[in-house]
Amino acid sequence: MRNRRVAPLASALALCALLSACSRPDREESPPDSPPPSAHDAPPQGSIAELIWKIQDSEDAEECDHDAKPIQLEIARELDARKAELAAFRSQADSSRIGNADYRPRPLGPTRLWERVSPPVPIPGWQEDRDSWALIGESFRKIQDTPIDARWVRLEARVRGTLRDDLDRVVNGDWFYYTLGREGESLLQGSRPVVSACLADESCRVPEFDSAIATRAAENPLYRYFARKLGEITDPAERQAKLRSWLKWIDWALTGYDFKPNSTIRRVSSGYELPLLSGDLAGAEETLAHAIETTWSHSLGERRESVLARFDETELPGIFRLLLGQEAGSRAFVSFTQKTVNLYPEIVASTIAHEIGHVLGFPDHYYTVWEPATCTYLTQSRDDDVMSNHWSGGGVTAEEWQELSERYRNPEK
């Protein structure tokens, strides 16, 4: 998910409900009885324009999506036409500024790895950032008549990242994730036993949440749908079917917050030994191991503890393979069913560290909320956590090290 942007959510949904015009009307009227598959194992295929048309042609596209089509296609024509120029610029660049930090490249097999020049200075606490096709369009207008430079590279990355969110929200059926935000897990966990108890009680018509859960449930379109439908249903069997459907959605969403243990990891005296297949990055094992250990290492008393990448072509059950896609600027991701780490050309070192965090078992700790009233994505993240905002140079938190210690016990002596 979650690549992966809730006071703002409440006001957005309230306004949307009042206007009845900012989102697809039947999204809240009749969501599917069962959630979609929880994993999308293939990266988006096709040109930028082709990806846009996948969204525009979907029956679940919202008014926001259709309104954005003209600027989307105009930007797509430029980026697709200048694809070769963008690739040439990337390959020749010897420095880059991302956010407020400078980066330098080093060879990484058939591509290059970008490493931060100076140590990060994370901003404490949760940060919020918004992006939209309207804002992307403003950035495009400022550079559309200029030669290819770093601004075009940043624009393409924003376009591809936003398209991935659009595809997941509209085409892949993940829209419920985009209503949850960083408080979503507590909503799901707090409401599940109440919904389950209502299912077991034939006299229960609608689950009765405590005030804290009830407030957040009232802000969520899926929860509003189920509460309204249950209030209308008179047939007990139909009511129970609707409650079971609600539980399916809750359980589906909770998997996005789960830690997924990796059976190939061994606890050793110096840390955690992680077998990997170098795959498309064969020959760059030493650089990869350094990129991983730079982030996944900490002091533990008088010794250091690290995640130690061990590259072995032995096909161990459950071992992950590194793959290198073709489209620079695309969002890296891990497929748990295919056991692959999907990277892209001109990769940033902290991106590898983030994806390896998923291989270790961690979910994303950033959250993306779709605000239909403003056609905007709100991203919520923390600078000090590599699983939340790796662009800021965040490291591994004390809680994450504790989780690793509890999940992978019994170090070998």
Keywords, separated by commas or semicolons:
14 helices, disordered N terminus, Collagenase (Catalytic Domain), alpha/beta, 43% helix, seven-stranded mixed beta sheet, single chain, 413 residues, 14 strands, globular, four-stranded mixed beta sheet
Order of helices and strands: HHHHHEEEEHHHHHHEEHEEEEEEHEEH
- Largest beta-sheet details: 7 strands, mixed
Report strand %. Answer: 15-25%
Low-confidence stretches: 1-26
Q: What does the average pLDDT come to?
A: 88
Just give the CATH class of one domain: Alpha Beta
Number of separate strands: 14
Could you write a compact summary of the structure shown?
With 413 residues, the chain is α/β, with parallel strands linked by helices. The chain has a domain at 266-368 and 382-407: Collagenase (Catalytic Domain) (3-Layer(aba) Sandwich). Helix content is 43%, strand content 17%.
Explained architecture:
By secondary structure, this protein is an alpha/beta fold. The protein has a domain at 266-368 and 382-407: 3-Layer(aba) Sandwich (Collagenase (Catalytic Domain)). It has 14 helices and 14 strands. The strands form 3 sheets. Strands 5, 6, 7, 8, 9, 10 and 11 form a 7-stranded mixed beta sheet that branches. Strands 1-2-3-12 form a 4-stranded mixed beta sheet. A 3-stranded antiparallel beta sheet has the order 4-14-13. A hairpin with a 2-residue loop joins strand 7 and strand 8 (303-311). Mean pLDDT is 88; it is low at 1-26.
